[in-house]
Amino acid sequence: MEAARQQVRDQAQAEADRWLLQARHDAYQVILGAIDAYTDALILPTTEAQAVEAAKQRFRSAELRVKVVGPETVRSAANELSLTFIGVQRVLDDGQPIESWMARRIEEHHDAFVKAVTAVYAWDADATRDVP
Fold first, then answer.
1. Which residues have CB under 8 Å from 65's CB, separation 6+?
2. pTM for the full predicted model
3. How far is CA 109 from the centre of its chain?
4. Structural contact between residues 120 and 24, judged by C-beta atoms closer than 8 angstroms
5. DSSP 3-state assignment of 8?
6. Res 129 pLDDT > 50
7. What are phi and psi of 89, to 5 degrees?
């Protein structure tokens, strides 16, 4: 009887782990597209303010999804990228041109986010019982 209960618990845990990984995958796909769109909207000099605002809102929505499903390393990387976007946005709002170091900073934080996401996908279910 105990073995049957344990099997049910294990199956429920496996299903919860699959659900979480799928939710993360979906959130990461959305935010990666939003990052590219927001970066292009900020960096390209011909982008209209309305397009920048739409890209910003798309990124914020995607970032919220990432914050909900975690893990902390990915949430932190998304937050760092968000802070970088905010800084660049302020420069634009002040009527100043984007400088090359700003684009590099976005790229660095984008790369850090991708690295954090990649670490989640590298998680080995046989090595640990906890989803990262």
1. 26, 27, 30, 31
2. 0.81
3. 11
4. yes
5. helix
6. no
7. -60, -40
- What does the pLDDT look like over 44-80, one tens digit per residue? 877 788 888 999 999 999 999 999 998 999 999 999 9
Q: In whole angstroms, give the CA distance from residue 53 to residue 72.
A: 27
Cα–Cα dist 67/79, whole Å: 9
- Whether the link from the prior residue into 71 is cis, omega within 30° of 0, is yes
CA dist 110 and 112 (Å) reads 5
Q: How many CB atoms lie within 10 A of CB 63?
A: 21
Question: 59: which 2 tokens?
Answer: 């990124």
The H helix count followed by the E strand count for the chain is: 4, 0
9-36 mean pLDDT: 90
Q: Rounded CA gap, 125 and 132, in Å?
A: 10
- Residues 76-103 have pLDDT tens digits of 999 999 999 999 999 988 988 888 899 9
Phi, psi at 99, each rounded to 5°: -100, 160
- What's the gap between Cα 82 and its chain centre? 10
